[in-house]
Prior knowledge:
Blueprint: H1 5-27, E1 37-43, E2 53-56, E3 59-70, E4 75-82, E5 93-98, E6 105-110, E7 125-128, H2 132-166, H3 173-200, H4 202-228, H5 231-254, H6 257-264, H7 266-288, H8 294-297, H9 307-313
Helix pairs in contact: 5-6
Amino acid sequence: MKVSREIKTAILVLSGIILLIFLINYLKGENLFESPDTYYTEFDYNALTKSSPVTVKGNAVGKIKDIKYDYETGKTRVEFTVDDQLKFSKESKVRLYATGLMGGNALAIVVDNEGELAKSGDFLNSEVEDDLISSLTKNFSGVSNNLDSTLKSADTLLVSLNNLVEDESEDGLKSAIAELNATMKSFKTLSFSVNALVKNNDAKLSSLLDNFDTIAQNLSVITSDLQKVKFSETVAKLDETLSSVNNLMTGIQSGDGTIGKLLKDEGLYDNLEAASKEMEELLRDIKLHPARYRRILSKKEIPYTSPKEEGQNN
């Protein structure tokens, strides 16, 4: 069958029109071979355009289809489409956020898989995320107030310091600095004197440090010896000795033993006192009559002479 030229021309024109429609929709982000799901949400103001994307975790999954102002509620109603392969529940939210510093905005679906799955035509709750510029503006407002207060305080401090520096009285800062300078000079002179003293007595200081080192070593040895001493045994022996002395003193007080009898026996005391008196009389007699005791005291043997003969001779 022979096809006429007119039919071929018509087919070619229709094919071109279809291809053109497909290219236009493709450039708009629409795919004629897909059937996306449509959802709705609302915002208090409009910051979107029909070219704004719809994303999930930064990935484009749809686009905004229509933006209308609702005269009854006073809100902006947004209709957007999402790829039908994306599944999420009705509890998911649509977040308005800024895509960059230039002010572009987009919608992000905060997926929540809890609850009933959302279907095409459902209404989803919305929220607005503060962009960087808004956050900086809010923060800068507080920072500017604090900075203003800080600058006022700094200005007051500088004025006070200026008045203090210009004070020519005895309590002024210049006077204090001058006194501090004099003190530093005196300290410098003192440090030079100390340095010279150390330099002149370097040998003595070295000897003193050596002696101190020797003393420290000796103390270390003594400490080591003391650590080896068994103080517990020494204290135990001392306790036994004190107990023995205590028993001895108790026996003496009770009159036991020779010492106790000497202290407690009155007859022995009387005998000792009588013997002491007789000894005293004997010594007195020796002084008065030494000739009587010459035979006893002399190294030579002298014949014994009775007292009567001695009296007759005298």
